[in-house]
Amino acid sequence: MKSKWVLYPLCGNKTRVQIREDTELKNFPLFCPKCKQETLINASQLNISVIKEPDAQTQSR
After folding, report:
1. In contact, 40 and 28? CB cutoff 8 Å
2. What pLDDT is recorded for position 8?
3. CA dihedral over 51, 33, 6, 20, signed as positive or negative
4. Measured between alpha carbons, how far is 36 from 60 in angstroms, rounded to an integer?
5. Fewer CB within 10 A of the terminal residue: the chain, N end or C end?
6. pLDDT score, position 58
7. Residues 44/6, Cβ–Cβ less than 8 Å
8. Is 20 a residue whose pLDDT tops 70?
9. Residues 14, 22: Cα–Cα separation, whole Å
């Protein structure tokens, strides 16, 4: 079974998460210990994609 470490998509550093070929992640909050940021990711068959969240907008009356 092949496995690899998950790299944080914004800075490229190795995280504390390791995934295998058969791992399925949906809306997984990935935290980077170096830059102290968190991003939602999806992972399937060792392919990782970042979920873009829409920015909050203020309501005007």
Report:
1. yes
2. 92
3. negative
4. 33
5. C
6. 67
7. no
8. yes
9. 20
* Structure tokens belonging to residue 49: 């994609």
- Domain ranges in the chain are 3-50
Record the tokens describing residue 42, joined without a space: 């999806």
* pLDDT the model gives residue 1: 82
- The model carries a pTM of 0.76
Q: Which secondary-structure segment (H or E) carries 47? A: strand 47-50
Who contacts 58 (Cβ-Cβ below 8 Å, separation ≥6)? none
Residue with tokens 């944080």: 8
